[in-house]
Amino acid sequence: MLRETAFFSILVPALLPLFLGCIVLFLLVDKVLTRLGLYRQVWHPALFRASLFVCIFGGLGLLLQK
Predict the structure, then answer these.
(1) Neighbours of 35 (CB within 10 A)
(2) Three-state DSSP class for 41?
């Protein structure tokens, strides 16, 4: 996995663009799940949202390794 990426001659961690992309993907998934009413069915919606983001970020981070 890359450690750093050059972005306009500034070195940023390789996971930073992935993190920002995951935020956008999470917001889209969150909007869909809210419209479907899934959050009324879970015990703790904030904990579910946090774990959903961790799963998305972890999964895409693992894909980046290969």
Answers:
(1) 8
(2) coil
13-20 own/partner pairs: CB under 8 Å, 24+ apart? 14/64, 15/61, 15/64, 18/57, 18/60, 18/61, 18/64, 19/57
CB 1 within 8 A of CB 62: no
Q: Is beta strand 10-13 parallel, antiparallel or unpaired with respect to 4-7?
A: antiparallel
Backbone angles phi, psi at 11, to 5 degrees: -85, 120
Q: Whole-angstrom Cα distance, residue 25 to residue 38? A: 17
Confidence of residue 2 (pLDDT cuts 50, 70, 90): low
pTM greater than 0.85: no
